[in-house]
Please model this.
Amino acid sequence: MRMSASDIRAVRVFRSVVEHGGFSGAQLALAMSQSTISFQITALEQRLGFSLCQRGRRGFELTDRGRAVYDYSHSLTSALSSFEQQLGELRLRATGTLRIGIVDSTVTDSVLGIDDVIDQFVRKASEVDLRITIGSPEQLIADIAKDGIDCAISPRIKLLPGYSQTEFHHEMNSLYCSERHPLFPKKIVTKADVEAAVVVVRPYANKTELQHIPNAKVGAYASNIEAQAMYILSGHYIGYLPDHMASIFREKNRLKALLIPEAQIRSPFVIISPKHKKASLSQRIFLQELRKRIAAGESNQAKPAVASKNDKT
Model:
């Protein structure tokens, strides 16, 4: 079968349907109607001569051949993206698509300054289609593995072989309780008080959140920072949050930092990328701007959380 431009478009639609678990999720991601998506899938099935998926009242399910086509399609989309980028590099211009994954709740980090990085990148690589995905570290690693993104910006985590982690930034995290928690009104909070409370943690942090409170009772697990903040704000749990994100709630007297500074954690941030894949020109420009922003922001880096009248513990 000789692939046409319409076949390639249909394959991309098919990949989106698979990765979003059905037509509904793909509708939002592709900004297409369900009838248009269905037409693309049907046209691809007719070209291939076999069914790719079952759809109906029982939901969406890949056929065995459909699963094989999805697996094979990784090499097609990767090759097309690589070809576009290589042509751009021959012209000494960044072109094609750049897909960056970023861990959630970083927009308030003034040192990281992702908005400034995007600003400078767009100025220098205006022909590049920049696509940013926000997710938990586990989601970002899965996206890299299936070639959904080119690299990820994330806290350091344990990785399988085949990935590199380049450290470039640190984020200060403090232990917090909300105004609803019994520890909030206490003038002096001890380590024993903290270890008697129920803690919410993030599994990907690999128990680093318990390094200063090893005897604490874990009562909930959050998949990302925003979920962790919700647990803490409920008043039933204490837990770690990035200081830059928590400052919004501290200013409104909704959060209180505990055991400052002895319980603070300095979390390393890394750039994660597959070792087998050479960084494109557009990726190199983005990461160069990222490092420049970090270097410029370090002189004004936010200081560790300073005990306020509500944080004297």
